[in-house]
Known about the structure:
This protein is an alpha/beta fold. The protein is built from 7 helices and 19 strands. It binds zinc ion.
Amino acid sequence: xxxxxxxxxxxxxxxxxxxxxxxxxxxxxxxxxxxxxxxxxxxxxxxxxxxxxxxxxxxxxxxxxxxxxxxxxxxxxxxxxxxxxxxxxxxxxxxxxxxxxxxxxxxxxxxxxxxxxxxxxxxxxxxxxxxxxxxxxxxxxxxxxxxxxxxxxxxxxxxxxxxxxxxxxxxxxxxxxxxxxxxxxxxxxxxxxxxxxxxxxxxxxxxxxxxxxxxxxxxxxxxxxxxxxxxxxxxxxxxxxxxxxxxxxxxxxxxxxxxxxxxxxxxxxxxxxxxxxxxxxxxxxxxxxxxxxxxxxxxxxxxxxxxxxxxxxxxxxxxxxxxxxxxxxxxxxxxxxxxxxxxxxxxxxxxxxxxxxxxxxxxxxxxxxxxxxxxxxxxxxxxxxxxxxxxxxxxxxxxxxxxxxxxxxxxxxxxxxxxxxxxxxxxxxxxxxxxxxxxxxxxxxxxxxxxxxx
Length: 454
Ligand SMILES: [Zn+2]
């Protein structure tokens, strides 16, 4: 089934997601590098141009491909540990500015995309041959777009509604996360440590897709979805036992995630610890529900009252898991030890409640996971189906931040953004692979995020 819908979704990064098509199933990577030829294009309208075009042009190569840590390519190279490479499609590293034969008003992202591709074709640049990913930046002043960035989920297109001279990494990384098939990552607060009683509440703060900024990178289920964890790194748990995890974003070999069956869903457990550019402020074992095996639509399971966000000063491990139980599916997890870059975790699949974190007998070796699905990182381009119903939400001119990571948006600010969305979520796009969860997530954020705020 092909359905696409543009949704009103606000996050700290202030972006919108455009969902479309069928998401492929997850993949466990085989360690090879997926290379994508990325073409940033600067476009202008007949009635609106960049205010500082020379600055925009000068900054674009660095924003996308610069050798510094704050470029998009550097971010993805580090977070994927070399498995995802965004490379310039042209020697100049960008094209433009190109004036499109249209006025700015109306925020018609489809028309902008179509006319941009026509203009590129006139220059001999064809999508699928000369470039695989298209990132269109245009001056925001007259568009009326109420988002700073927009990304196809999954897909090859991102749109940047630019007010200043360059988009921050927070926006770019988030939109390209959408392109990889990732939705927004919610937080699910579960009372009493049992997963039968949970409520959507805010965002995970463990991912650039969940209000965590680029310093969070991506979470384990998202890394699985992107194909960046091999079978030995994301172990599919089929037997009770004690497992050792190394930090998700750390270097070296070892298991980085446990992928546990939980009824129709999966339970993914990770250990986070400062490593490289990531997780300076994230520590401890965290768990995610993966609905129906859709790894791009995971939500953080939070059993605490800490209400930890990327913007508050709760301790780095305030929302870390100690133990959790899903009685309905007879799954129980307990942390034996956690710290200094390693965690030991008991998993029981037989209905035994592991509320006490005692080591079980024996060490269980991980099994090799399934097939690599190269579609994951190189998802085919879903076409717009004409059913987009609304503009995205996220940022007006006043709150257009360079990124969510440099200036963490406080809960209050995020609520202001979300309040403007009006909770539009009555119609879910029924993508088979879980794009609907993007929208479900938005409803949860709008309706429930004020709960339990300290
Ligand atoms: Zn988004």
